[in-house]
Amino acid sequence: MAGHRLVQGVPASAVQAHGVRRPVLRTIAPVHVVRKVQPHPHVRLRATISLYEHTTSSYVLGRQGCRAAKRGVGGVVILDFGKPAFNGNTYGTILFSNRFATNRAITRGMLGYARGYANCLPRGLDAAISLARGTSNYHPHVPNPFYAGWRWANETKLLQRLLRAHGLSRHVTSAAADDVEPAWDRTFWRTRDFYRGYARARVGQLLYNYGSLDGGVRHGVWNVRQAFFVASGMRDSRAIPEIYNSAMAREWADLARFARRRYHRPVKFAGVMTTHTSANHGIKPVAAHSLLTRELARSVGRGPASYVPPSLTNIRSAY
What we know:
With 319 residues, the chain is α/β, with parallel strands linked by helices. The chain is 36% helix and 23% strand. α6 packs across α7.
């Protein structure tokens, strides 16, 4: 916020006796020096658009990337390709069109998105995105969740190599993501094994959890240890929680408080996710970010442990 600081000079007075009986007092009036403080630029937070994908077509995803670039917004973009699946021959996902897509087809489609984004950026705009291949823990139809996670990690690494090879890595980096909902895996073991498989690949690419806590860690489906593991327990895991209302913000703040007490470690937030549209009148991304930061400040105090990067993403069905 722009303002001014008033710096007041110290008044000086000089008394001199010029050989007369009564000294003459000369007083120098205070000098007020006004220094202008340069205003801090006001940054208007804007959200990226994440998408529930119905196809892996490089052409269609390329157009999506181009539209994203023309909005001029950087940050995290999650392309959700549906739940993990196995077609009897290879691993992949079930798209939101209810069709099977191989992991390799997903990688090709994401490369198309990256090309569209890099090629359509307005001249002079040096924006960048973390492009995350998204899946979920919704009843995965795979013989081995551990191996599914391992394959997901290796395809994430492959995309990063392709981005470098095609000269796109300046504007796009590869990441992974998982819409983790405790109610979808009440036993926790399938979600745990997917994460362990991802970690075993040791690719170094971030894995974003853009899910929920379904009642929180005190009265919900999973306990603190389980919820923390998929939010920040792994070296490369980060949380971009769904914040659709104040209750969800409090649930994540509770997790942050318990993690500090039990493990002396923070929940590593990377932003927030919303599902706002003009039709559903859901909470907007900036408001969701404010909600979460406010609840974290109440639970763990102000400081690094309550910091949430201003990285906002709003997910909706692919258009």
